[in-house]
Specification:
It is a single chain. With about 300 residues, the protein is an alpha/beta fold. It has a single domain, classed as Nitrilase/N-carbamoyl-D-aminoacid amidohydrolase (4-Layer Sandwich), CATH 3.60.110.10. It has 5 helices and 15 strands. The mean pLDDT is about 95. Keywords: Hydrolase. This is Beta-ureidopropionase.
Length: about 300
Amino acid sequence: MNNKIIKAGLIQQSNTADIEANKKKLANNICDCAQKGAQLVVLQELHNSLYFCQTENTELFNLAETIPGDSTHFYSNIARENNVVLVTSLFEKRAPGLYHNTAVVFDSDGSIAGKYRKMHIPDDPAYYEKFYFTPGDLGFNPIETSIGKLGILVCWDQWYPEAARLMALKGAEILIYPTAIGWESSDTLEEQQRQLNAWIISQRGHAVANGLPVISVNRVGHEPDPSKQTNGIQFWGNSFAAGPQGEILISGPNDEEINLIIDIDMKRSENVRRWWPFLRDRRIDEYQNISKRFID
């Protein structure tokens, strides 16, 4: 990946309850990115459907599918036809009663390059993911593709520096976060801005600390709460790419669908790590307690 400029496409999309329509729109957007030269295309978290975790409903497990399965066949064909490395996010049915939030990466020939199962699972009002998803068990392992090693993490993983660090230590050349995050209507404008800034700063911090570019792709638009206990989620978009010093390379709006295209200079990571050799100066002899829940 060094000495290469990678052209990446970030698809920020709103969704409806019509899964086939969502997939068709994604297919068109992937084609649009490819026509604009994208070699890597990243989709948002759980992009086939509405964000169904606003309620706890056993019927919604019917949305899950096996890997490989119908969706992997669908996106495999799209990746091959458009000659792109494609990062997808699916609701995986591993076995009856056992489900994961799983990112699947397709290489440009349509083959499955690898998958990552979301490790950190939230359980907050309107984000009842622990009801649906078993924590991942595939570890933090970059996925090897024809354009390099992709460190795929998913949404809630983006708050954890340990996840980004382990991907970096295993040779990831870029960190990628499919995401579904937004505001609840009761949040004040000030609180909304604090949340959004924290989300952006946290991921830019992972870029800086590891000397790696970061891509984060979030959904956009309002999705109502089926239970009507809340006013639903306004997903805040703001998909972005950052360079290895945390510099914003491109970012999207908070209220519109958009396909973002950006050139990412992968050689810059090595230069930045030479200037700021954080990996060299880590005190690995003093970090034993990092694996504890809390140090009393």
